[in-house]
Amino acid sequence: MKFLILSLSIMLSISVNSQVWIEDSNCNSKSSDMVNEAINYMTNIEPLVALGLAKAAIMVDKKCECAKLVIAAISSPNPNWGTRKNKLEKINQDKLSAEENGWYELLVSTTTEDQDWDSTYEKVLENFPDSPLFNWFGTSRQDWSTYSKYADRFPNFAAGAYNMLAYANAYGEVGEGPDFDAAYALLEKLETLHDGPNSYDSRAEIAAMDGDYQTALSNQLKAVDYASFASPYWEKAPTYWRSLNKDDVSAGLIEAQKKMQNAILERDLDEFKNYVSDDMPLVSGDSNLGDFYTFNESNLEEETAFTWNSFDMRDFETHFSSDMKTVVLTFYTSGSYTFTESQKEVAYSTRASSVWIATDDGWICTHTNWAPYKSGVGIPN
To answer: What is the pLDDT of residues 161-177, one digit of tens each?
Structure first.
């Protein structure tokens, strides 16, 4: 619903000069404008806005079968769970124009086992050689030059091509290596043709590739701002924030590890619960090298045959996953404990690691592993 509301607001701003991807349509003038704008969003990798516009087109013109083509096009062709085939079957092919029917045949070819896309595409392109939409389907990341050629031939429809070329320059797939200035210049050309969130998402991703996480975060939040509730662009924003504040995140996790371990030693259940989750139990391997097990509140209540005298943690290192959502902490511990019955004191020395995962409720620990360090001793069996 949120995307439909956004699309309706966009619909009001569609001008008569909007890009016309389908010249020959059986939709009325208003719904045709909306469908062409939907295709514009589709080719700019903003399918949810395209979906809203297509549904809005059907609301104002129930005979607009081309809008149903847009909806089918952004659906999955996967036969096991996708709905493209089902949506195509509900389209009245007799009410499609020749150009719309060409798109219909292309989409059908993606849902069969005949693997006849190439032959179907060749036939459709032969019938409509000047179609910006059908020529767009001939671009591919396997050959970045297809986007340059497309932009040269269809400059008014080239926003999506400029987006892909921006990535090509950032990746160093064209020229002599990564060229971030060229990438940003291409995104500026994109934005003269199309106003949408994906250009900001691209700016953010390219800035992150360049190590500029401040620019990445700023632009990602601009993408989120287009429709903030449940935005598909929100996922990367915390990644960029953590990258920008990596030292603080590391320090916070190290402190959390210390506090969690102290809560275990002090048998402080309330504090311990701050660092674990029922959804992802804490799996632990103790330094006595016994079996792995799930550590929970019942373990805090178990009586032990020894008492800790000291327990020190040092030399922490943090190892982040590329998406900054998972962190492996490595560290070393030393101290001593005394057996209750014999009063024998044992020097304790281990190396350890823990796995922390970012959740909506903060960082939680899902795994710890302890082992005697070199000639050191862990806890007793």
So the answer is: 999 999 999 999 998 99
pTM: 0.87
CA atoms within 13 A on the CB side of 225: 9
Q: Give me the numbers of helices (H) and strands (E) for the chain, helices first please.
A: 17, 6
Delimit the domains of the chain by residue range. 1-138, 246-372
Q: Which residues contact 341 (CB under 8 A, 6 or more apart)?
A: 305
Rounded to whole angstroms, the Cα distance separating 370 from 338 reads 19
- What does R_g of the chain's alpha carbons equal in angstroms? 29
- Of all helices (H) and strands (E), which one includes residue 350? strand 345-359
- Neighbour-count burial of 271, counting CB atoms closer than 10 A to its CB (0-12 exposed, 13-18 middle, 19+ buried): middle
In SS3 terms, 224-270 reads as: HHCCCCCCCCCCHHHHHHHHHCHHHHHHHHHHHHHHHHHHHHHCCHH
pLDDT digits (tens, 9 = 90+) for 89-141: 999 999 999 999 999 999 999 999 888 899 999 999 999 999 999 999 999 99
Q: Does domain 246-372 have CATH number 3.10.450.50?
A: yes
pLDDT value for 114: 83
Task: Give the Cα separation of 200 and 181 in Å (integer).
Answer: 15
Paired tokens of 101: 């029917």
Q: Let me know: does 316 contact 327? Beta carbons within 8 Å.
A: no
**7: confidence class by pLDDT, cuts 50, 70, 90:** very low
